[in-house]
Amino acid sequence: MKQKRVWREMSKYCITPDATSYSYMISCFSKEGNLFDSLRLYDQMKKRGWIPGIEIYNSLVYVLTHENCLKEALRTIDKLKEQGLQPGSVTFNSMILSLCEAGKLAEARIIFNSMVEENVSPTTETYHAFFEGTDYQGTLEFLTRMKDSGLGPSKDSFVIILAKFLKLKQPVNAPKFWTEMKTYDVLPSCVHYRIMVEGLVTCRWFIKARGFYEEMISNGCSADPMLNRLFQEEVLGSGDKGKQNVKKAHSNKSVKYSEK
Question: What is the structure's pLDDT at 54?
Fold first, then answer.
């Protein structure tokens, strides 16, 4: 890790790290899921007399939650309160995002409720974290919550939602949320069309994919050579399958005739 090497070089040249240096390094380690080094530097900076700021506590809360230490993450929130600091949306979002990524939606909802109880307003990032992990009904729920909070949903919200269901090989849900876009007055962009077409092709929903592709072109989006090739291959493949089925049918008739 580049940052780790620079840190060692600082020690080599007798450069004493300050609070900003510790904050940066702990942030880097936490984003990599490196719990050991994050806590090591946290302890080290306190021994050297530096007082951790809210950024450091947010990093610790994230990495602790990410590494399945939710109770310790909650204790860290208590510690920052003892220091006269207040957890904000970044603090709670760091936990919610980690939990949603891990599929721990029940725990994520508990943190969401705690966030509201602490009078911390959910942000766009809060709702987007839930869109990454919730099922069909949960996604509808958080779309409503997001609208009620006055934060959207936006075009980015539906990029996340459409991509999620297609990645999960749930093509039946993607067109439903395409319709929901209109309900929320969100106009589909070329990005949305490409996500739909590529995802539906991957799920082998070729007829539906071709319909979205033709609509995409008619709405002024540029043609995609890769998608054109995929559709051509499918047409050829369907033709070959048709020929094979005809040959098989003739073969079966011949067999039946000879048996008589």
Answer: 94
Q: What are phi and psi of 184, to 5 degrees?
A: -100, 15
**Distance set, CA 130 to CA 140, 149, 161 (Å):** 11, 15, 10
pLDDT of 108 over the 80 cut: yes
- Which of these, 54, 55, 65, 68, lies nearest to 28 by C-alpha position? 55
Tens of pLDDT, residue by residue over 22-61, are: 888 888 889 888 899 899 999 989 888 888 999 999 999 9
CA-CA distance, 37 to 34, in Å (whole number)?
A: 6
Place of tokens 């300050």: 18
Q: How far apart are CA 59 and CA 108, in angstroms?
A: 17
Give the C-alpha distances (Å, rounded to integers) separating 214 from 95, 161, 219, 234.
42, 22, 9, 16
> Which among 123, 57, 118 has a CA at the least distance from the CA of 89?
123
Cis ω for the linkage preceding 153 (within 30 of 0)? yes
Task: Judge whether 214 and 223 are in contact, CB under 8 Å.
Answer: no
Least confident of 42-56, 79-93, 138-152: 42-56
